[in-house]
Amino acid sequence: MTLDVRLGTTGRIARVGHVVRGCLLCEAAMVLIAEQAPQRRIEDLLRAEARVDAALKAGSPFPWPELEMFASVREVKSRHRCVGLPFEALATVLCVWAGNGPA
């Protein structure tokens, strides 16, 4: 997975580019991130990783309505990582960018 994250002048994400070599769930999650991340605050995106994890494991609401397409993945624990990995990668990039080290 390769990410290209651009920060806008307002401290929000301007653009997310990506290349994913993984399963369709991983690719779909990254496509949604690329669509939903622009104009969101970094803090909100950092919280999204934990919220996606909770949505998959505990049935909590997903952070974005578009992610509800992954609701059926709750039943298949071995696929939770497929959906969560793009959020983890984004959080790592944003933490390093903010000077906080890896997430």
Rounded to the nearest angstrom, the radius of gyration is 13 Å
Content-based structural category: alpha+beta
The figure for the number of domains is 1
Sheet with the most strands: spatial strand order: 1-2
Helix segment tally: 3
The percent of residues in helical segments reads: 40-55%
Characterize the biggest β-sheet: 2 strands, antiparallel
Low-pLDDT parts are: none
Tell me the distance between the termini: 16 Å
Shape: globular
Percentage of residues in DSSP E strands: 5-15%
- Top-tier CATH class: Alpha Beta
Polypeptide structure, described:
With 103 residues, the chain is an alpha+beta fold. The chain has a single domain, classed as Sufe protein. Chain: A (Alpha-Beta Complex), CATH 3.90.1010. The protein has three helices and two strands; from the N terminus they run ββααα. The chain has helices spanning 24-36, 42-58, 80-97; strands at 2-7, 13-19. A two-stranded antiparallel ribbon has the order 1-2. α1 (24-36) packs across α3 (80-97) and α2 packs antiparallel against α3.
